[in-house]
Amino acid sequence: MSTHPNLIAFTTITRREIVRILRIWPQTLLPSAITMTLYFVIFGKMVGSRIGDIVPGVGYIDFIVPGLIMMAVITNSYGNISSSFFGAKIGRHVEEMLASPMPSWVILTGYVTGSVLRGLLVAVIVLLISLFFTRIHLYHPLITFSTVLLTSIVFSLAGFVNAVYAKKFDDIALVPTFVLTPLTYLGGVFYSVNQLGTPWRQISHANPILYMVNAFRYGLLGISEISMGVAYGVMVGFAVVLTAVGLTLLDRGVGLRS
Amino acid sequence: MTPIPALDVVELKKTYANGVEALKGISLTVQPGDFFALLGPNGAGKSTLIGILSSLVNATSGDAKIFGVSIREQRSEAMRLIGLVPQELNFNMFEKPFDICVNQAGFYGIPRAEAAVRAEKYLKQLVLWDKAFGVARAMSGGMKRRLMIARAMMSEPRLLILDEPTAGVDIEIRRSMWKFVSAINAAGTTVILTTHYLEEAEQLCRNIAIIDKGRIIENTSMRTLLSKLDIETFVFDLVQPAANPPDIPGVRFTKIDDLTLEAEMARNHDLNSIFASLTAHGIAVRSMRNKANRLEELFVRLVDAGNAAPGKVAA
After folding, report:
1. What global pTM score does this model have?
2. How many domains does chain A divide into?
3. Which residues of A touch B58 (CB under 8 A)?
């Protein structure tokens, strides 16, 4: 049986992305390992040991592990696709794909898959590092995996949209610096939003990363400040909307075709 | 039965966001198996037309069919039939030429094993096999141009579009590229060529369209176009330096150097009378050749005529 041309095209893009990730591993895999190790040492061990349990029965380092893994997944998924697709745009080799018979959805899924694989790989690396500092009990494997997968998909799609609109390298650095980092830090990675007073607790609920971090924390630790239904609704909702935006941009050739 | 044209462009228009009308409703037909020249000055609309055909530029209106398949309605099917060698280098400089070719085939849905065989075949044919597993950016300019031809051939297209493929390439590599493309054309692939080297177009192409300011100002066979040239120029290489050329009615001599004369005359002018006059003036001719710039002369005239009277076709 012959393989469908779109499947071959999809695996071609995905393979190219994986080769790129592994070829430049000091830029793609190593930084998160180093950064997260520092977070575990400083916030988990040195500061965390003085904080004690942030939720009854859950030590501070255990509390921040899911958030730090999520932080790594978000930044890597977003950064991978935005730099790779924008690089293809600037280097003009995106034209190889645009002038080929591939439909837009194959291009989008190929790039998103590459980014998600990097996100998952980094998640595993950070999880393994965390085992040097604490013990992880996987409370709900399906929720853990589906949350990290959905989060990675959402931020890969967001990175793709950023790359499509970007005209210079500064444009792909702006969003991670001024949007992603603040949202991640304010998304309950290092603290419980229940500790916040009004109106900051309510305002925090407008941050989508809060739902992702909490869902992932529930999968790993069995604790959450957010309902799982709402969390999945937010993640799936963002994934659907961003997929539609990405496909529309590709179909119309925004920033790609004149 | 009339064969389905390799390319059938109908009233294609393109107006860019800044208001520039790059194509003002052009129509054009290229027959299967043709070696077709698409010429025009810089900014005439050639690259816009090629961009639309390869789906890198969105047309404002009109359509084009590749072997009967509409690029507007059946983009994917139409793209399967086209191979593009663009004017600008557009491959990933950090990848290996072999991977660039195999990935290109992958984008067209060609299985990896088959793609590897084709990559070896075309990289060898274009004398790039010894560079196949190095980094692409380390290759010379000529090699990069040949790599783009090899990449375009990976899908074995029925219509190959070459947009100034020999720009900045030395003569030896240019000849080897044309030998390859001529062989591809002889094997049945329709070729559309844009070039600023008009001698190339004259030697290689059977049919021609000249585009200027977004309009087709000439579309005919190369032979018909060249036959419109009513003046011919011959170059005489002399045995010894000549003082001044003779005065012959209907012939304009230009002294290029002491040993070279150029004679411009009507196509039907009698050459014997010229030789007789030269001999009478003691000028011995060692050899004579036709100046190979006929197409260039026509091209300049057509474009100049278009500039003098926009919309009027002249020859």
Report:
1. 0.84
2. 1
3. 252-253, 257-258
For chain B, which residues lie within 8 Å of any Cβ of chain A, measuring from their own Cβ? 16-17, 51, 54-58, 75-77, 79-80, 82, 84, 86, 88-93, 99, 103-104, 106-112, 151
Q: What is the pLDDT of residues B45-104, one digit of tens each?
A: 999 999 999 999 999 999 999 999 999 999 999 999 999 999 899 999 999 999 999 999
A247 is a domain residue: yes
- Domain membership flag for residue A156: yes
DSSP conformation letters of A159-213: HHHHHHH--SHHHHHHHIIIIIHHHHHTTTSSS-GGGS-TTHHHHHTT-HHHHHH
Domain range for A151 is 24-252
Is A2 contained in some domain?
no
Cβ count near B175 (within 10 Å): 13
pLDDT, tens digit only, all 258 positions of chain A: 567 999 999 999 999 999 999 999 999 999 999 999 999 888 878 887 777 777 778 888 888 999 999 999 999 999 999 999 999 999 999 999 999 999 999 999 999 999 999 999 999 999 999 999 988 888 899 999 999 999 999 999 999 999 999 999 999 999 999 999 999 989 888 888 877 878 888 888 899 999 999 999 999 999 888 899 999 999 999 999 999 999 999 999 998 888
Task: Tell me which of B75, B96, B107, B161 to substitute to probe the interface with A (most A C-beta atoms closer than 10 Å).
Answer: B107
Single-letter amino acid, residue B8: D
**Residue A143 in domain:** yes
**Residues in chain B, total:** 315
The whole-angstrom separation of Cα B57 and Cα A124 is: 42
Cα dist from B144 to B20, B43, B97, whole Å: 32, 24, 9
- Distance in angstroms (rounded) separating the CA atoms of residues B17 and A258: 8
**Cβ contact B108–A101 (<8 Å):** yes
